[in-house]
Amino acid sequence: MIVRCLRRAVTAAVLTLALAVPLATPVSATGNAPGAPGIGDPYFPDYGNGGYDARHYSLRLNYQPGTDRLDGKASIVAVATQRLNRFNLDFLLDVKEIRVNGRPAAFAKSGAHELEVTPAMPLLKGTPFTVQVTYGGNPGSIQVPGIVTPWIKRADGALALGEPEIAWWWYPSNDHPADKATFDISVTVPDGTEAVSNGILAGQRSSQGRTTYHWVMDKPMATYLATLYVGDLEVRKGRSPSGLPVYTAYGKDLGPREQAAKDSVERTPEIVGWLASVFGRYPFSSMGGSVINENVGFALETQAQPVYDSVFFEAGPDVGVVVHENAHQWFGDSVALKRWSDIWLNEGFATYAELLWSEKEGTGTAAELANAWYDQIPPASAFWQVKVSDPGPANLFNGAIYLRGAMALQALRSEVGDRDFFTILRTWARINRQGNATIPEFVSLAEKISGEQLDTVFSTWLDTVGKPAAKPAPTAAAAATAAPPAAFAANRRMHEIMHGPIR
User: DSSP character for 328?
Assistant: First the structure.
């Protein structure tokens, strides 16, 4: 019943927008201009595009494992934010045809990943329009200088997983978190092969030796959070205590890491339930997680379906990484950044959730663990030279964004007290639900709720390089700085897997 109603609602919304497209403006109309090739992010000037707002992506994909051949048709519903005679999409595969509002459009590639589209008739500001792109190619063979190819070709399938880049390799988009949209993704693969994506599995059917899986994400999603995992997988389906669908998927090549992975990821409903008690209502209609055996060295918060590298489970169960990626469902996915310099709002918050989990489990309070990090990282370490509020694109995922970012939140908690601190976090997640936000907006909210002027806290921990003179929990008892070894070691190990040793 839930799935059927969901599919009907999404389809109706898309049709309403598509049918609302008015007659296009004549070519001779004045004031038309091309949309910008970038959305305006200083870190990545050519990422995303200007001139329109994407509202919905419908992807119909056909994938052949072994050959890595992907053929697709993307239907995009968008709204023009200016009068447009041309606009860009971010995309790398070969394009066969593009139609805008049902009419053939001219197109050309430019730059590293730009697809310039010229509709037959210019588009009016404020009007919805539809774009259909028919395409194909071998994503795993495409390389972009300076970027590790995020499409991972596997013997039995493929994996689409990367941040900040991944969409270019498998679907055309306005590729920046500032332009979120809903998705439905249908993937056709050989019978016996599984295909896992985001949201709810709304349908599955087989015909002539091939199976189509239809996934629906009914909440706005940033383009890098869309994922696709195709292969010989063990897929489990269940329900959370709150009644939401739960999908977990495990590669059959996990070997000795398999049981530890399952012991960790199968706790997702429990972990999500606890996170909801701390941060407020869970923001999506499903939950789950996938485990890969690719040694990519990271986990990613792909929306409602986080992906974990099996390396996290090499030494046994690692619940911390599951807490981290599911905390992102509030901080990073539901509340997405407006520009990449705001990455602290994602990673600092998810890392602090790990400390809160340790506090709940009685294996070290957040104050103890934050102080332990502070004590163990020497002042001369390059770690302290990263400006958390503006790290630069090269340091986007530096360990300081995670660990110093979490220390910043502990410093805020120490300053305003528990009642105001948790009110700030819950209010932040609620008022920005399914939207985008910035660091200055968070600072403003924290000051409003606490009634305090917090320049010193945020300047010290986010805006200034160098090791702060005081600990993040300066009032904690001296004995508390020696955090319980097991909790501290497990938490730090996750970050060293992702970022290398901290010296």
Answer: T
DSSP 461-476: III--S--SS-SSTTS
Whether 468 and 408 have beta carbons less than 8 Å apart is answered as no
Query: What is the model's pTM?
Result: 0.91
Predicted local confidence at residue 24, as pLDDT? 36
Output DSSP code: residue 36.
P
Give residue-wise pLDDT tens across range 351-389: 999 999 999 999 999 999 999 999 999 999 999 999 999
Q: Are 439 and 412 in contact (CB under 8 A)?
A: no
- What is the share, in percent, of the chain residues with pLDDT greater than 90? 87
Span 175-188, average pLDDT: 98
Amino acid (1-letter code) at residue 487: A
Determine the Cα–Cα distance for residues 388 and 318; give it in Å rounded to an integer. Answer: 26
Where helices occur in 240-288 by DSSP H, the ranges are 258-265, 268-279
Segment 128-150, tens digit of pLDDT: 999 999 999 999 999 999 999 99
Q: SS3 of 495, please?
A: helix
Give the C-alpha separation, 375 to 369, whole Å: 10
- What count of Cα atoms within 13 Å lies in the side-chain half-sphere of residue 457? 24
Count the helix, strand and coil residues of the chain and give each as a percent rounded to the nearest 5.
35, 30, 35
Average confidence score pLDDT of the chain:
91
Burial of 486 (0-12, 13-18, 19+ CB in 10 A): exposed
Coil, helix or strand for 383?
A: helix
Both structure tokens of 92:
């790398």
Beta strand spans in 149-286 (E): 151-154, 157-160, 181-190, 194-196, 200-207, 210-221, 228-231, 233-239, 245-251
Which positions ≥6 away from 83 have C-beta within 8 Å? Answer: 25, 29, 31, 32, 33, 122, 123, 124, 125
Please provide the DSSP assignment of 334-378 as one string.
TEEESSGGGTHHHHHHHHHHHHHHHHHHTS--HHHHHHHHHHHS-
Q: How many helices (H) does the chain have, and how many strands (E)?
A: 11, 22
| pLDDT score of 492 more than 80 | no
